[in-house]
Backbone:
């Protein structure tokens, strides 16, 4: 079956760095997405990886290793507004998105 | 202008009723979706639809039906509502569902359905 695993909840301190991991098992692979969802709001797109390596976008970076079925989202210089759920989603060979349950990130002062 | 707008934002209704949620996108996207997010925050695809093809998640009860009058609109009709239908329903759109790089989803703000 197809499966996305990510931690349920993480806590970090304002100004610090946090890494949210995601492992996946899918039928084929056409890329991996990260979305951010603040409580009570819609998910918004953060990043897309289809090749191995690190993609950097400001304070956020996303890494992919296809051979390991593994990705992480790295958030630097954490701000209180980064408190949200982070959703990992993988696109399978049929271009269908398989979603993880999300990681709730709590930022403490 | 809101890119993907859905109404109503909140919907409270009795079991057994029939209700609809409307969705419109002004992005010129070819594909629209309906997702259900339950209390555990899991996003589950219900339908994806473009001009040519409707893909239905086989786990979705046939009480749920999408209706698309044109490519900018995809409404969700729900018949005979049940308690378990209580959730947040998100509409989304993407440029092209067949190309992964272009398949970034833009979500609406969500419609919270409560069935009593």
Residues:
């Amino acid at each position: 079956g197809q499966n996305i695993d990510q931690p349920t909840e993480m806590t970090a301190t304002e100004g610090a760095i946090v890494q949210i991991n995601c492992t996946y098992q899918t039928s084929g692979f056409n890329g991996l997405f990260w979305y951010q969802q603040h409580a009570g709001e819609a998910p918004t797109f953060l990043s897309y990886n289809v090749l191995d390596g690190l993609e950097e976008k400001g304070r956020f970076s996303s890494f992919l290793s296809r051979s390991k079925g593994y990705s992480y989202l790295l958030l630097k210089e954490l701000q209180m507004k980064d408190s949200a759920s982070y959703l990992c989603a993988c696109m399978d060979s049929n271009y269908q998105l398989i979603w993880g349950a999300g990681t709730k990130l709590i930022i403490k002062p | 202008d809101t890119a993907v707008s859905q109404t109503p934002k909140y919907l409270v209704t009795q079991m057994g009723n029939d209700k609809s949620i409307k969705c419109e996108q002004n992005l010129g996207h070819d594909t629209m979706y309906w997702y259900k997010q339950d209390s555990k925050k899991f996003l589950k695809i219900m339908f994806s639809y473009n001009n040519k093809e409707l893909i239905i998640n086989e786990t979705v009860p046939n009480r749920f039906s999408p209706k698309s009058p044109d490519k900018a609109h995809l409404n969700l009709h729900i018949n005979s509502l049940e308690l378990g239908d209580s959730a947040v329903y998100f509409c989304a759109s993407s440029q092209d569902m067949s190309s992964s790089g272009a398949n970034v989803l833009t979500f609406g703000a969500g419609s919270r359905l409560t069935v009593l």
Summary: Chain B touches chain A through 22 residues (CB under 8 Å).
